[in-house]
Target: Zinc ribbon domain-containing protein YjdM
Amino acid sequence: MSTIPPCPKCGSEYSYEDGAMFVCPECAHEWPQVAATSEAESERVIKDSNGTVLQDGDTVTVIKDLKLKGSSLVVKVGTKVKNIRLVDGDHDIDCKIDGIGAMSLKSEFVRKV
Model:
């Protein structure tokens, strides 16, 4: 009997093999079998403008006026953003800013508080 790892997203023990992928029936998360052991090791490190490592839930400060595309709103220098969430992609921080709402930021324009 093979040992199938639990789902990395929800922790369900009912995951199963489907070709070259593992699948979780509870949350529908799919992940490759090859990278299942090395996924935690190859996790991307996201750093702020000063080189400090950022983590989910951190509070950061915006270091540059950021104009919002398609709007006349501007995120001003010194705006404090609480409880950030790190994501993959070009804009690697998801957050909510008071008075503006949900948006994505690049880590190069923020500084950890």
Summary: DSSP finds no helices and eleven strands in the chain. The radius of gyration is 18 Å.
